[in-house]
Amino acid sequence: MIMKQNNELQLIIKHFFRNILGVAGFLIVMLMVLSAIFADFIVPYDPIALNIKERLQGPSFSHLLGTDQLGRDIFSRMVMGSRVALQVALPTVFGAVSIGFVLGMIAGFGPKWLDNAIILLLDTLRSFPTVMFALAVVALVGPSLETVIFIIIVTSIPTYGRVVRTQTLSIKSSEFILAEKSMGSSTARILLVHILPNIFGPIAVLSAMEIPTIIGLEAGLSFLGMGVRPPTPSWGSLLNEGYTLIRNTPWLLIAGGVPLIITTLGFTFLGETLRDAVDPKLRKRN
Amino acid sequence: MTILDVRNLSVDYETEQGTLRALRDVSFTIEDNKIVGVVGESGCGKSTLISSIINLLANNAVLSSGEIIFQGKDIVRLSEDEMRDILGVGVSIIFQDPMQTHNPVLTVGRQMMDIQYRDKTSKEKKKEAAIDMLRVVGIPDPESRLSQYPHEFSGGMRQRIAIAMALMVKPSLLIADEPTTALDATLEVQIIEKLRELQGKINCSILFISHHLGVIAELCDEVIVMYAGEIVEHGDVRDVFHNARHPYTQALFACDPGRIKEKSKNLPTIKGSIPNLIDLPSGCIFKHRCTQRISVCDTSPAMHRVSEKQQAKCHLLTQGKN
Predict the structure, then answer these.
(1) Which ipTM value was assigned to this complex?
(2) What does residue B60 show for φ and ψ, rounded to 5 degrees?
(3) What CATH number was assigned to the domain covering residues B101-203?
(4) N or C: which end of chain A has fewer CB within 10 A?
(5) Cβ–Cβ below 8 Å for A184 and B117
């Protein structure tokens, strides 16, 4: 029984890459990240340059995915759209997870009245219909990338907050936390060293799985005209434009929809594999 | 020297049905280097006693009277911060279920090094200390096992790791809350032997909670018999085991399968059940189940010293009939 003295991170990485779905997810996400970063070099045409002469062309070698009704190259718009998708997804997940973590852990570990207060706050947030809330915010400050990010953060905090709170509650009452308390550990120590690593797995998965939802939400808001403003390309606006022209030029819809589907799959694979790699008990399975 | 001095400790639980008087007027001391066993059936206040000693009582518990003096300091009156300087320094505890006392997502090594957070030594030193301690409790190949997770160990090994972690801090008082209840008989013997051996090495006192009489007899110097929140008998293990004076202790021994000589279909039991601690009966707490009940039992008996090392709470002793 000789085990190498691996540290935690190495073990997680090793187990992650043993899973084929995880590798696929990782590659898809990497592809998306790279295309977002290097979008300026990839796009064959300026994604917002109008070319009325070549409007609504089908896919060809000069326009891989054809053109839209204003003659813009759809492939270029699709690649540029990944940038918007990531610009929305990453800060919102980061923001919502951070705030959700803090609120959830305080609610789960703190006194009952604080728990009730935070739960009330989260339930209030959650009871707003996303679209109505978005409409109200957009009406107040106007559509922009920042507005979209703000709206999505606010509406997805309850998801994380509730999960973190429930996990904290269940772990708080377990015997190893009592054992820690009996060894004189401070509250901060119990929360950070012992409870946090126990919640991290489920939250990593949840965030990975929320990313497609967020991109979808951004697409939805853009579709309703409440997201990023034209002519900035986003997958949502591609879908929006494609929707009206679906009978004659379906490639617009494909250019908006397919990357959304693939990204969703990619992040979901990533999330599931991450959960299995982070949890030492699930790790043994493969 | 006295390590722990519990004086007239009473603890109540506020429940919806009323005030549950879980511990009443409990007094005892633990001397240096002694192993004191506490025995009693479920619900007699053993766990409440431990929780009050480590000052981690449930939210609805009220320490209504008494003092718990640990190394000269009254634990009851300490602030949370002052208490943290005692827990994991002077007192440490081993819990009942070894399957649940470790953090499932951290390696055993990480947890054993983490528990030394008070020592300002290097990581390597802490690791060495952890390896040494695992070797002491008899975990084979401790270097490589440090990187394993709790679920990769068997129950007996986990309990030994729990013991190692509790002893890591070199406490002067080790509290063991039924540490062998969740283990099988062979492991029980191993753990008991390990505890005895380590107690000699580290020179700590042990407060050992159990409902296994055989284990108490094997391990402890003194025994405290609890019934329904009161100490009914307290004394040297030999005296109590050979010459139990309280009817409850006698009944308890009569029910110990290890002491039954004759074949019988049914194991003996003590008839009845413990009284409702919300609505306490007057007089002796054991009178409803006692086979030797006399008329004075309707008044509360006082602790009676039968010998230098043994005392019991029963009217029969003062009436000269037992």
Answers:
(1) 0.80
(2) -90, 10
(3) 3.40.50.300
(4) N
(5) no
